[in-house]
Amino acid sequence: MCGRYASTRDPATLAAEFDAVDATGDEAPGADHNVAPTKPVLAVVTRHPRDADRTPDPDRTERSVRVMRWGLVPHWAKNPSVGSRMINARAESAATKPAFRTALASRRCLLPADGWFEWQRRERAAKQPYFLTPADGSVVALAGLWATWRPAGADSDEPPLVSCAVVTTDAVGPLAAIHDRMPLVLPAACWADWLDPDSRDPGALLGPPSPAVLDGFELREVSTAVNNVHRNGPELLAPQEPDQPALLDLDSAP
């Protein structure tokens, strides 16, 4: 699963990295080393631009960085509280789940991250958190789904809520020894296909990734301080031991 991640790049930096425009306005969250469900997050989407009458232009698309809330709220939900239970969408079943199937067909996004956390169960001890991040400091693109929820009543002045979920898949490589699930990490070569608003079937991108996707990542033990959602700061990403974390050795994958 993915229950926490880190995202510290600002919207302008992400716009350059994803060849997008910054559409966050003054809503962008600051650097967050402990992103937790229901927090505002940055997401990358590709949509057909709309005119003043909200009519989409079928001949053009625009990729943009936007702000969403983590925890997908389907348009049919009675209230947005359900989003806290829909932070992850399983790649194997998203196409058949009422909460996710519409988003999978037409509302896919990328959630930029520095890396993500996973917890390993240990006998007679608290779960040990690990942080998985590219050794070269490059951005990680987590596959996501998004939806727009509007409050009931045509006269409501409450703005619509745009929310998202992380798509998860089977863990691969050495990560499988830590946890059985992981976010679906998409390499840059897959970004355009995943974000394409006119592609209704992303099935080819939903399979478990090759262990090579994690080649060059670091898997490091970190402090249990990250367990507290109110804690934040770069120290949460630091190795728990003073030794430098080793690169993932794909040859030793289970």
Helix and strand sequence: EHEEEEEHEEEEEEHE
CATH superfamily: SOS response associated peptidase-like
Secondary structure tally: strands: 13
Helix content: under 10%
Q: CATH fold name, please?
A: hypothetical protein yedk fold
- Count of individual domains: 1
Tell me about the largest β-sheet: 8 strands, mixed
Judged by helices, strands and strand pairing, the structural class is mainly beta
Report the sheet-strand fraction: 25-35%
Helix/strand layout:
Elements: E1 5-7, H1 11-17, E2 21-22, E3 32-35, E4 40-47, E5 62-70, E6 88-90, H2 101-106, E7 108-113, E8 115-122, E9 125-134, E10 140-149, E11 161-170, E12 181-183, H3 188-195, E13 217-221
Parallel strand pairs: 2-5, 5-11, 6-11
Antiparallel strand pairs: 1-3, 1-8, 4-5, 7-10, 8-9, 9-13, 10-11, 11-12
